[in-house]
Amino acid sequence: MIILYQNGDSRAVPLLLNCDRQAIPSYESAERLWQIASGLQKAGGCNIQQPDVTHSEILALLQTVHEPAYLNFLSYQSKTLDQKTLLIEHDFVAPGVSADTPIIAGIFNVALEGARTAVAAAHQLTYGVQRAYALCRPPGHHAGKAWMGGYCYLNNAALALHTLIRQGFSPVGLIDIDYHFGNGSVDILQSVSEAFFASLHCSTEKSFPYQKTAPLNQRQVIIPFDKSPEPKAFLDALASVIEKFMIWGCTALVISIGFDIIDDDPHGGWNLPADIFASIGSLLAHVSIPLCFVQEGGYLLNQLETCAFYLGKGLQTN
Ligand SMILES: [Zn+2]
After folding, report:
1. Do β-strands 131-135 and 291-295 pair in parallel, antiparallel, or remain unpaired?
2. If you measure from the C-alpha of residue 298 to the centroid of ligand 1, how many angstroms do you get, rounded to a whole number?
3. Residues with Cβ < 8 Å from 240, sequence gap 6 or more?
4. 189: CA distance to ligand 1 center in Å?
5. Is 309 strand, coil or helix?
6. CA 285 to centroid of ligand 1, rounded, Å
7. What is the CATH number of the domain that holds 138?
8. If 245 and its partner were Cys, which of 88, 158, 229, 250 is the partner (CB 3.0–4.6 Å)?
């Protein structure tokens, strides 16, 4: 497996707002990526590379996935805010969702490097690599065409998927196994006829984005769990989605991977064990088409290495 490790600075937002408009500490940090890289390396069978996608390609892809007014706003604020300001109230928030994610000076550049990493991972598949892993941050799956939320500004997984489609993969599936619902990915992919989307996630009414959700078309599979599933139930649901996507003829899969499904994650709420990632990896090891992993959440720092290790080991199952 080729791991693409994000370049650039380690800037991170200091807080989020919860649904009661109270500040909660941020758990999103560059250290998350160090821990995950360490776990994957300990599992073996991987090489780390730097993303080398040109600026012009990233900018062109961003225009495909996000609306220009949103990109301009994000870029302008990121350039002009002073170092102490947190800008939270603005119009670029998902319908019915309260603003929770600050814009801070320089954050657009961090998100841009995350996007570059995801696109670089997708490129690996076009070079014939069977598995690539974008170690990118901040996460992206809550970023829609024209809005941000839940730490997410640019939708890294959607950018990877568009890259694959541009390079001739079609159709492409995106399977989101982060604890949270990828509302941004759903928003972006609803109009992409060459994409299938599936998500396994917690109750969207009890957790972000705090609203009911449903598939927007027949290419989307939405599987919520109202409470922490048994490992077997989660794995059976994942297996059923993989089978469905194979029947639908997917030529590559993007996996939005979140480690926040495990016990004690500060943004989670389930009690799945870290070793479930060995079983997840084993299921994915038997998928015959190329896989592009894109890092989403996972915030329990002292368990990220372990989760990634199990995933890496599982992916080596024969
Ligand atoms: Zn999450």
Report:
1. parallel
2. 6
3. none
4. 19
5. helix
6. 23
7. 3.40.800.20
8. 250
Residues 6+ apart with CB under 8 A from 121: 2, 4, 51, 132, 133, 134, 160, 292, 293, 294
Tens of pLDDT along 67-123? 999 999 999 999 999 999 999 999 999 999 999 999 999 999 999 999 999 999 999
Whole-structure pTM value: 0.98
Ligand 1 ion local residues (Cβ < 5 A): 178-180, 258, 260, 297
From ligand 1's centre to the CA of 151, what distance in Å?
9
Whether 118 and 61 have beta carbons less than 8 Å apart is answered as: no
- pLDDT means over runs of 10, the chain (318 residues): 95 94 96 98 97 96 98 98 95 95 97 98 98 98 98 98 98 98 96 98 94 90 97 98 98 98 98 98 98 98 98 96
pLDDT of residue 152: 98
| DSSP at 273 | -
- Tokens, residue 174: 């995106």
Cis peptide before 171 (omega within 30 of 0): yes
CA-to-CA distance for 102 and 90, rounded, in angstroms? 10
User: How many domains is the chain built from?
Assistant: 1
Distance, CA 58 to ligand 1 centroid (Å)?
A: 24
* Peptide linkage before 139 cis (omega within 30 of 0): no
138 prior amide bond cis, ω within 30: yes
pLDDT digits (tens, 9 = 90+) for 266-280: 999 999 999 999 999
Structural domain boundaries enclosing 77? 2-314
Mention every residue, 6+ apart, whose C-beta is less than 8 A from residue 218.
Answer: none
